[in-house]
Amino acid sequence: MMWRNLVGNSGRAWRSRCMSIVRRFEHVSPAPKDPITGVTEAFLADPSPNKINLGVGAYRDDEGRPVVLQCVRDAEAKIAGSEFLESVSAAVNSKMVEESCKLIYGKDSDAVMEGRFAGIQALSGTGACRLFAEFQRRFYPNSHMYFPAPTWSNHHNIWRDAQVSARNFCYYDPQSKDLNFEGLINDIKNAPEGSFFLLHPCAHNPTGVDPTEEEWREISYYLKVKNHFPFFDVAYQGFASGVMDKDARAIHIFLQDGHLVACAQSFAKNMGLYGHRVGCLSFICDDSKQAVAIKSQLQQIARAMYGSPPVHGVLLVSTILGDQAIKALWTEEIKIMADRIQGMRATLRESLEKLGSPLNWEHITSQVGMFCYSGLKAEQIDRLVREFHVYMTSDGRISMAGVTTGNVNYLANAIHEVTNSGYEESQILGESGF
Ligand code: LMR
After folding, report:
1. What is the CATH number of the domain that holds 44?
2. Considering Cα of 411, then 203, then 329, then 55, what sign does the dihedral take?
3. Where in the numbering of this chain does the Aminotransferase class I/classII large domain appear (predicted)?
4. Which is catalytic among the residues 187, 210, 233, 247?
């Protein structure tokens, strides 16, 4: 037969060839589920009509629906018909980077006015972090990246895959459910000179705990003393206070103190552009010559990783940031989103208190941004899933964006149920409980 001739006329040889192909992937076992996207998968598979997804940090309206902001609709109307099927021009990219830098470093910042910044469009916040990690590996091969403990789970994946050594610094104190400021400063002091520190300038993910302005000043001071490099991951600008500039205050303090910094910005949450993957990685440099060199290196890294990013999102972002009226509308819409989340924090806490919960729920309202680090334990979270169909990440992080007027009482009841029974038992056993 024809095919036999083609494989050397030997059935045995052909079979052994097939076997070797089958064996090719034998050593590949399934990867563990991602701690955040895995929650969405479990939620989607649950048929219960009462289910609530408090896992992923994605904004939802009071009906629990994803939102397309009016500013995005206006920007879409403005760019409709433009020829954007090819890569966008360098001018559009530069405009987007410049506007992003103004947004985060301040429109009047010396570095921006003097052109001492370098940046490129990135695949949202994850892509911006990944580019930075690669830059760090290439140009600072023996350096360490210090993460706040805890931090967004994907930071660990990103720096691990870039093969940069990662360490933690003290950040959250589970006892006080607040910042461990003393531990944080000690870790800055004890890190090897010239280390890299990843900082969340606002709406810390996952804890919702941000340093005060005074604390940021001290953090900036001690990082400077040790010649450490501050790298800011800004995924939630606008969600802490509802005001873009206020949420960038920490970075302004660092610039005033003369730091050179880098920033990963995402427009996924504050413009609701999740699927479009638009972000920006930027650096503040000593002079414009340095900025040119850094930009060319970033372009080279991106070129080998994914070529160029999609064009539609960058047109939307540059249109929103570059058009005064649309930008003004955007800032109003961010305030509405931030206020809704803030309102849900107050209602959730109030509902738990009304139920007579003996526990202290103050942290629900003192923490800021999209997340509440609830303090719920693994077994309580398991019960929330099994008995109440309430989903959250296994560290007890609640995405407050998933809480609505319609589900807040159900949620409060569920939390009260799983914490109260444990609390009563621990009282009998004489433990400290929750
Ligand atoms: C989150 O922390 O839930 C978001 O940043 C979304 C994500 O991709 O992890």
Report:
1. 3.90.1150.10
2. negative
3. 50-415
4. 233
